[in-house]
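Quick note —
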Amino acid sequence: MAEANWYVVHTYSGYENKVKANIEKTIENRNLQEEILEVRVPMQDVMEMKNGVRKTVQKKMFPGYVLINMVMNDDTWYVVRNTRGVTGFVGPGSKPVPLTEAEMKPLGIKVDNITIDFGEGDTIVVVAGAWKNTVGVVQKIDFNKQAVTINVDMFGRDTPVEISFAEVRKFS
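Predicted structure written out below.
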């Protein structure tokens, strides 16, 4: 299988989240999970003053652009290029150019491979975030998103929750 890279897609301004949702739906419908790994609309926290009150809000880092981690081939190119709201890939002519590691670093996209000391079926404890001190069994590990899925008991039912590698430790 070819290597996945990050590409930048130009969209109509204001359609970034719609494009993201449409591409994710197409990935699901066409079973392209192995070829189109992740779709992101880069956001940043910005401090705003409204009526004398400071408030932190999330704003798009690059209005009109969406980042996609994908294996470039004719099928994936066609799917992304023909998504409603997409005007094209960023690159010379119609040839998409992948982002370099130096270009991805300021976007918060980690390229380094993280090693973890747990696997599927292991018990872990959440050490940060909303689920802090929750203990769960690893159901799925997603190295692309750098996250694990655990089942959490919520209202008497097992509910799958996705948590970042940085927020979990192996339960001892």
